[in-house]
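--- STAGE predict ---
source: upstream dedup step, 1 unique chain passed
mode: sequence only
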Amino acid sequence: MKTKRILSALFILLASTATFAQINFGVRAGAAATTFANRGDITDNNNVTLSPVVGAFLDLPLSKSFFLQPEVNYLRKGRSDESTELSTIAKADFMIHYLQVPVLLQYRDDHLMDNHKYAFYISAGPYAGFALGNQLKPNNSLNLADSNKTDFGASFGVGFQKPLFSKNIRFDLRYDMGIAEIANQPSDYRTKALSLTIGIVL
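--- STAGE serialize ---
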């Protein structure tokens, strides 16, 4: 119930902020491939788990081509077939549910939108991921509350925007790299996620 209230409040805040001139509000949904890896190890992409991604975003124009894009997203990050320090199960899928709030700087050539009705863009920025809970599969009764810590990291992405039925549709490919250590893991793990989403600017 508490989580639903937090989500509702954040979505209402985004929607109400979008009522100001030149600020656009949108929603996005898709899927993410996630894992845990040692700090700085961008090549370890093993033991991947899949997660839905849903969220909302704002477009705040800074200039003709630069936009500030704060978002509120839900996704689950984890590592499959992995031991935890506290688990009596030899191998288990360990996942943490996050409410992730990135603040991205986006470069988009809106001249392309004016002339060709489409635009490519790149984006980057920090994020904070607030842990909502964790999950072990197979389930057991161990308390892994120490894992519910705030995750921090950086997001990097590319995307494509095109009008469709009087709305702007976005296809977004994004890579997240966490910098906060995950508790109750047998190694110095951080989160990683590669997501593909479709969004609509309302």
